[in-house]
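JOB MANIFEST
job_type = single_chain_structure
chain_count = 1
residues = 187
[input]
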Amino acid sequence: MKIIAGVDEAGRGALAGPVVASAVILPEEYDLDGLNDSKKVSPPKREVLFDKITSQAISIGVGIVPAIEIDRINILESTYKAMKMSLGKLNPVPEEALIDGFPLNTQIIPNRGIIRGDETIDVIKAASIIAKVTRDRIMVKYDQQYPLYGFKKHKGYGTKEHLKMLQLHKSCDIHRKTFKPVSKMLK
C-alpha cells in the first residue's frame, strides 16, 4: 500500500487566533462513518470523529502558526508553513501528500493540490476534522484568557458578535492586526 497523507487547514479566514494545519495517514481499512469536510459536520460529531481518527490513524501531524506570525509573513505563507510543519511530524514519512486546495511548491514530499479535496478525499476530510477540532479547542482556551470577545462561541471568525466586541474593546494579543477590520480597531 502506498503511504498517502491528507492535508488541510482551519482558521485561514479568522480574524483572531492561529491557523492550524493537519496531516493524516489512514490505514487501508478504517471505520469513520460520517466523515466529511469539517465545515459540514456539527461540532459534537466533529469531536466524535476526532477521537475515531486519532484512534485509527497510522499517523497525525499538526502545525500551528500564531497570529503574530501570520501578521509578519501573511496568511498564505502561514498556511503553507503550518501544512509543512504538519507533514514534518508524520511517522512514517508519506510517499505522497494530497493537499486541500493547491500544492506545496517547496515541500520535500511529492504532493498534489486537490480543489475541494475536503469534500471528496477521506484522508483530507480526516485532516480537516483534526485541524478544525484542534483549532476550536485552542480558541476555547483563549476565551478563558480573553473573555470579552466570545472566542468560545465564534472561534475568532468575523461574526456580528465578534465585530461588535472588537469595536467595543478594540483588538487583543491574538487578533490578526493586518486583517481588516482588525487593523482599524487596534488598541
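[summary]
DSSP finds seven helices and five strands in the chain.
The domain at 4-138 is CATH 3.30.420.10 (Nucleotidyltransferase; domain 5).
exit_status = 0
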